[in-house]
Specification:
Length: about 290
């Protein structure tokens, strides 16, 4: 009740203690809700030529378990494209240990987000220079939740949206860690990524690629991606070899991705196999009429 929350809040402020409801005997305590990190205000670079070393980075915006590791392995085999494992750069943070450090950066015109963007750009630039290639490709699925900031950080960024049948995504997400989540939880969690990808698709220009078409017609889709990225076609992307980093949490680590060649995708689910929670997204992505 509201009055109970008010009293409990006052008690916590003035005594450092608060009252918590005790569950029934044998009942597992509920997990505390995760605390969202407050969003850092961000803006485009003040001087793109000076502030950004990386030019025209490519971001694969996709849900989890949608074939992004396959696509990045294919693109990494291209002589002009460097596509490392998931880098999670959006989780790299900058903090001010003292107020003087903050004032010093303010005097230079840098906000905390500006410094984070410089850090992100430097990490990608180091990878690109070490590869000796022209363009870098980043495919961390959680980037879908930060598409606005990525577009602000690199105004010349290019985006490839990778879609897959929502029910196939959910099934693969469950199979990746069956002891971690139920099938229903996997569908609901995967849907968060799908919705974020769809928001990005509505907001940003880019090329949409479907996993089912990529695995069925890899050369046709590969040529389409190369044309979009303004790089020449290379047949190397069809036999990409074993990815250098095959680690859970940094991309797909299953046997299929380690085969070194494009494998046929799983059969599409029938309409009655699609969880109700995913049917609207199936219609949005035109997997259902």
């Amino acid at each position: 009740m509201k009055w109970q929350r008010t009293i409990n809040g006052a008690l916590a402020r003035y005594t450092g203690f608060q009252l918590n409801r005790v569950g029934k005997p044998g009942q597992k305590p509920s997990k505390p809700a995760p605390q969202k990190r407050p969003q850092t205000p961000f803006r485009p670079p003040a001087d793109p030529e000076t502030d950004r070393l990386v030019k025209q980075p490519v971001f694969i915006i996709s849900p989890v378990r949608s074939g992004s590791t396959l696509l990045r392995a294919m693109l990494n085999a291209h002589p002009d494209l460097h596509a490392p494992h998931e880098l999670h750069v959006r989780r790299l943070r900058v903090e001010f240990d003292t107020s003087l450090a903050e004032k010093a950066m303010e005097a230079l015109g840098h906000t905390k987000a500006d410094l984070e963007h410089l850090l992100w750009d430097r990490v990608l630039h180091r990878e690109l220079v070490r590869s000796g290639k022209r363009f870098i490709v980043e495919k961390t699925p959680a980037n879908a939740f930060a598409y606005e900031r990525l577009a602000a950080c690199w105004p010349d960024a290019r985006f490839v949206f990778l879609l897959r049948h929502p029910a196939s995504i959910a099934a693969s997400w469950y199979e990746a860690s069956p002891g971690k989540r139920t099938r229903e939880e996997a569908a609901a969690d995967a849907l968060r990524y799908m919705k974020a990808v769809q928001r990005a698709r509505r907001a940003l220009p880019g090329l949409t690629v479907r996993y089912e078409e990529l695995t069925a017609e890899p050369e046709r889709v590969g040529r389409e991606i190369c044309e979009f990225l303004s790089v020449p076609w290379s047949p190397r992307i069809l036999t990409y070899g074993k990815p250098e980093v095959v680690v859970k949490g940094l991309g797909d680590w299953k046997d299929k991705i380690q085969s070194g060649t494009v494998q046929k995708g799983r059969e599409l689910p029938s309409p009655d196999e699609i969880p109700d929670v995913l049917k609207d997204m199936c219609r949005t992505w035109e997997y259902l009429p």
